[in-house]
Specification:
The longest helix has 16 residues. About 40% of the residues lie in helices and about 15% in strands. Strand 1, helix 4 and strand 2 form a beta-alpha-beta unit. It has 3 domains: about 50 residues, 434 Repressor (Amino-terminal Domain) (Orthogonal Bundle); about 130 residues, Response regulator (Rossmann fold); about 130 residues, Rossmann fold, CATH 3.40.50. It has a 6-stranded parallel β-sheet, with helices on both faces. The chain has about 325 residues and is of the alpha/beta class. The protein has 12 helices and 12 strands. It starts with a helix and ends in a 6-residue tail after the last strand.
């Protein structure tokens, strides 16, 4: 028996069941009794976020992050923890890696700790196969699940995402409008976000009849920390005869490698090569020249995610998915 089953049998929304569990006074006495009757009938025992039935909230949120050494994910966790503290919540952080089994184990660990909700940081938790997302769906039958920059359309899962598709499309168009036609896309992920970026970039090239060969969409399979290997991959392409006047990268680390490649190849930036990164991280300022990058509004996303979670825990109806637009921050690596 889950809160879905209770809401269905009682003929009310999941949010109404949540309000009853939290002792929210906005629920009528008649509706409250109807929900409680269903719970008693099935001997339903609510988890720790059911404050209204005498069980105190643990005031703790679980956070799952694939790799805390990743600059984007680490910054996201920082913003999320900051917002949770502001709301007087603690957290338990699990660094899961990228394998499905470890993600499932971490989810079960957090559920066993009776956390009030779980936040999945980054888009690597959503899989193409429905079966591979079942661990999220099943967890959401017990507590709210929050997705940062990913989406899954199931009950009690809430998503806050950046519009990666449009951001990448606009980045490509900006380079094209400067007269550059030989553009290379450098990427390293097939996650939910990674696929949206790739689709946006591909559409911009196709709309301008500039996608001439598969090699323009260059996948890097190595470590996200190995900037030298990224640079060497671009150098090999260049020495093998592929010429490109623009590199658009799926993150700032890949873009920094493109800047290093240009120096080693004797190319001037931005005269011979324009480079755009993604995430507008601290690397944009460490880079010389400073890196043009897409700001995906990470802090705004994290703040909205926590606000949504707090409202859900208080039994309020909230949008299942909210999308924020990114912004190109122009610096010295583009014309």
């Amino acid at each position: 028996m889950t809160i879905y089953d209770i809401s269905k049998e009682a003929g009310v929304s999941i949010a109404t069941v949540s309000r009853v569990l939290n002792g929210n006074s906005s629920v009528s006495e008649k509706t409250k009794l109807k929900v409680l009757d269903v719970m008693r009938k099935h001997e339903y025992t609510p988890n720790a976020f059911a404050r209204g039935l005498g069980l105190n909230s643990m005031k703790t949120i679980g956070i799952m992050c694939a790799d805390s050494s990743d600059l984007y994910l680490a910054k996201a966790v920082y913003h999320i923890e900051e917002q949770l503290r502001a709301n007087e919540y603690g957290n338990i952080l699990c660094c899961t890696g990228y394998e499905l089994d470890t993600k499932k184990s971490s989810m079960n660990l957090l559920l066993g700790k009776k956390v009030d909700g779980i936040i999945l940081v980054g888009s690597n938790f959503i899989n193409e196969k429905e079966d591979d997302n079942r661990y999220i769906t099943e967890a959401a039958a017990q507590i709210p699940i929050m997705l940062l920059n990913a989406a899954l359309d199931v009950p009690n899962v809430y998503s806050v995402v950046s519009d990666d598709y449009t951001s990448m499309y606009n980045a490509a168009m900006q380079i094209i409008e400067t007269g550059i036609q030989d553009i290379l896309y450098f990427y390293n992920s097939f996650s939910y976000s990674g696929k949206r970026k790739l689709a946006g970039l591909r559409r911009a090239l196709e709309d301008n009849n500039l996608l001439k060969s598969p090699g323009q969409l260059q996948y890097y399979a190595g470590s996200h920390e190995d900037i030298i290997a990224m640079k060497e991959q671009l150098l090999k392409l260049y020495h093998d005869g592929m010429k490109f006047g623009g590199v658009i990268a799926a993150d700032d680390t890949l873009a920094l490698a493109a800047v290093k490649f240009a120096r080693e190849a004797g190319l001037r930036i931005p005269e011979d090569l324009s480079v755009i990164g993604y995430n507008n991280s601290m690397l944009t300022r460490c880079c010389d020249p400073e890196l043009t990058s897409i700001d995906n509004k990470l802090e705004t996303l994290c703040r909205h995610l926590i606000n949504t979670l707090m409202e859900v825990l208080n039994g309020n109806e909230m949008p299942k998915k909210v999308v924020f637009s990114g912004e190109i921050i122009k610096k010295a690596t583009t014309r």
